[in-house]
Amino acid sequence: MTTTPTTTLTNAEQIRIIILNEGEDRSENIYRLKKGWILQIKLSYNLSWRKLRIFTNACLKSEDKFQRSNYHELKWIYPSMGKYDDSDRYVCIPSVKAGSFHYYFTIDGSTTIENLNGQGFFQIEPELLINDNEMLEQDFITCQSVLSKSLGPMNEWLSRIEVAYHSGYNMIHFTPIQLLYKISNSSYAITDHHKLNPLFEGTYEELKLIIDTMAKQWKILSVTDLVYNHAANDCALLRDHPEAAYNLINSPHLKPATLLDSILMQFT
Q: Which residue ranges does the record assign to the Eukaryotic glycogen debranching enzyme N-terminal domain (predicted)?
C-alpha cells in the first residue's frame, strides 16, 4: 500500500519574481504560486525608464471578494530610495486567496485594459486540507472516478471504495449524485438538482459521514460534479423556464437536427 504525500501547514513566505518586458503578452503562460507566497513584478532594462502602471484583479486582502472585472492599481516599492534612479522599483502581490488572476500594465499613463502594453496570468493554488492540519500537495493527487449510480445503497459505499484506498488513491471523483432521468439513467441527465438519487437509500447527512470517514481514516479527499447546465427532459427547471435552454423558439436553426433526432428515435 502506498502512502499519501502530505505537508504540515506552515507560514513560510517565499518570493517569486516576474520580469516585465515591453510589449510582451504572456497570456499563454500561467505562473503557479502557493498561498502565503509573494509575487514580485520587476522591470526589464527597456521598461525601467518608463512611467509604468500595473493593474491586477487579484485579491490583495484575504477578506476581499473576487470580481474578475475589478482591477486594482499596484503601488511601487522603491528599495534603493534613489533620487534620480528608480529602475529597481517593483510591486508586490500577496497570495492570499486561491484562484487564477490577471495582470496588465500600461506605459502611456492610462488605466484602461484596452491600452495595455503587456499582460499575463498567475494562479494561486487552493489548499487541499486533510483532517484540518495536513495539506495534500497538488503534484501528488491520484484521483479515481467512480460512477455514483453504480455504488448501490450508501451503507455499501465504503466497502466498495476501500479498494481505491488500498490501491493508493488519495482522491475520489464522484459523478453526479442527484436524481437522474428515468429513461436514459445517464449520469449527466439530471431530473432534480436538489434531490439525491433514490438508489442510494440515504440522505445528505449520511453522505457527509461517508465523506468525513474517507478523509479521516483513509486520507482520501472527494470531489463531485456540479452540472447546472445538464438537465433531463423532465427537469423542473426546463418546465418552468424553457427559455433557459436551447429550444426551437429561441434557436430555430435546430429544427433540422430535431427532426433527424426524432426520426432516429423512431427506429431505435
A: 49-131
pLDDT per residue as tens digits for the range 30-44: 899 999 999 999 999
Report CA dihedral (86, 87, 88, 89) to the nearest 10 degrees: 60
Encode pLDDT of 65-105 as tens digits.
Answer: 999 999 999 999 999 877 778 889 999 999 999 999 999 99
The Cα 195–Cα 131 span in angstroms is: 28
pLDDT digits (tens, 9 = 90+) for 131-155: 777 888 777 899 999 999 999 999 9
Q: Calculate the CA dihedral of residues 130, 131, 133, 139 and round it to 10 degrees.
A: -10
Return the closest-CA partner of residue 148 out of 105, 66, 211.
211
Find the farthest-apart pair of alpha carbons in the chain and give their distance in angstroms, rounded.
83
177 phi, psi to nearest 5 deg: -100, 5
Q: What are phi and psi of 142, to 5 degrees?
A: -125, 105
- Nearest alpha-carbon partner for 88 in 45, 118, 38: 45
Residue 38, C-alpha cell as written in the block:
509573494
AA letter at 218: W
Query: Rg (Cα) of the chain, in Å, rounded?
Result: 25
What the chain holds in terms of domains, given with CATH numbers, is: 15-126 (2.60.40.10), 130-224 (3.30.750.90), 236-267 (no CATH)
**What is the C-alpha separation between 220 and 224, in angstroms, rounded?**
13
Cα 175 from Cα 231, distance rounded (Å): 14
Residue 118, C-alpha cell as written in the block: 503587456
Nearest 5°: phi and psi at 62? -65, -25
